[in-house]
């Protein structure tokens, strides 16, 4: 039973190294110290299926992929190979489900599956659990499944994939890998800090909650932390004298759950309003800078502007769609942000009113 | 009368309606999204389906009206009454061949899906053989057990299909269905043939009417019988296109099953919904196959006045080996296209022509 796959580039040209993470069904049940509950088998080959079949030369347990949870793609492969070619076999084979999670590793993918975890769980299973945490943190994008990836690559749509780095002990979900829709290759990274803001620009169908906005109070320079509960994002397409431009309206509502300043008084509406203003300014500043990076540096529309254009102005979309990502980088985009604090938890101020 | 050997009691309207509906459900549900997506190319596939369904309802009513003019007679009998003995016999033989081809196609599609998703290592020769054994066993029982079984299975299968498709709402995205009519109405109309062919099977009303208790209600039965598949197909199309987008649908061999395979509930605890779907779907393939197989034998029986059993047994090897004639999946899909074109002739053109001739010949003779 294989639960995780890691794809890396081999030394020779066009060679793939595949690491299969098997569940150790024989020894895994015994709770002996020192017995690992998984083992990895590494094979090489020129194409995916060939590489997979080579596993049977190395073990009596031929791989069975129905319970496969994650596919980790190494940075080098993702940046140099067309991902549509790499994932083709996965989408064709009946054993693999379309709901497998795709993750891009910084560095070698193999290192992710061989990393030591303090919990002694199977790395692939641990990783799969981490991919689901979008409700808790906004410092990573929503997971991308194999099926969704296939759809996006067919549509030539750029998208974000979760990325993972190995630590001394354990793993870390670190920001996002940006995949270009046209080339179907890795073209850049977003750090986890940037991802925190990029998530406000993506259409969040699931996982609208979670994520924080931290600002320093203007007067006291103490941190104020806002916990987001709901994101609503709307793109407005406008055409003035034939010039296309977008307006992104980001609205978020949530709780003010941490405030270090001693002089705060959340029971007062005015105070909440000023905090809201600060949060809004920060949100606008940061989202604009992420948007700028995506437009000017990476030139990839991962936020779904293309979908909105297709719906609102189909003739223009038809003209621009062949080179959408480069066209996208030229279109002016304005961000309109709004933060609404719904409540502030069980404590409203530090010192009682005098 | 020879016909009466085949049934012991006449059918109710509900039985005929469910008979028509079960016959219509077949290979269409798994291939419709792709064939329609390819033919139309915009997300407005579902509109085309509604048009296609409406056309089929109209044709179904034509078939019912034609049959009502000759109470107690099937297509095989009255075609020679309308056009004369020679042309009638030719029509009968052509219709028998058409029925055999539909049966063959359903048999092969069933085998292909079972091979891909369930029994990868079992030769399709064997799965086909088992499928046929059960079917012929039912067919040998005559028309009454067939229709009673169809009536029994239809509610179960419809409910399961609905529930499974609705579970797909989790991956559904409305933006994949927008904008409406982006390329105008013309692709929707151009793709009509692709959305009308999944309704193959309503022409069975040409025969069912003869066995009905109140043949007046034949039109009602065929309308209900087509309306149920329209709803299921509509639901399927909306979910499949909404989940995959029309571009990706074109690239998948079995888009409907792939969508159902993607249904997962939190923590991946409830998965493998395709097992539920394929089980029900195989039942639907079975009902379609059985009806067409029976109609083929009935045609030969009416033509040669030889016991129908001989043809039930005789067609077994014919259909069995014919289903392996397409040497690969592509050729099997091509067979589907051929069947679709033949259906236009046998379910659309011929009943319409016969009805017109019949009117010209006998005037508006009172329907008994």
How would you describe the overall organization of this protein?
The complex is a heterodimer of chains A (354) and B (368). Chain A is α/β, with parallel strands linked by helices and 354 residues long. Chain A folds into two domains: 2-198, no CATH class; 212-343, Nutrient germinant receptor protein C, domain 3 (GMP Synthetase, Chain A, domain 3, 2-Layer Sandwich), CATH 3.30.300.210. Chain A has helices spanning 48-54, 75-80, 83-92, 110-113, 123-131, 146-154, 192-198, 269-298, 305-312, 314-320, 324-328; strands spanning 2-9, 16-23, 38-45, 70-74, 101-105, 144-145, 159-166, 171-179, 186-190, 212-216, 223-240, 243-259, 333-343. In chain A, helix 7 (192-198) crosses helix 8 (269-298) and helix 9 (305-312) packs across helix 10 (314-320). Chain B has a single domain, classed as Up-down Bundle (Amino acid/polyamine transporter I), CATH 1.20.1740. Chain B has 15 helices and no strands. In chain B, helix 3 (45-68) runs antiparallel to helix 11 (218-249), helix 5 (85-118) packs antiparallel against helix 13 and helix 6 packs across helix 13. The two termini of chain B are 18 Å apart. The chains are: A alpha/beta (354), B mainly alpha (368). At the A-B interface, helix 6 and helix 9 of A face helix 11 of B.
Structural class estimated from helices and strands of chain A: alpha/beta
- State the domain count of chain B: 1
Broad shape of chain A: flat
Question: Judging by the overall fold, what is the CATH architecture of chain B?
Answer: Up-down Bundle
User: What fraction strand of chain A?
Assistant: 25-35%
CATH topology (level 3) name of chain B: Amino acid/polyamine transporter I
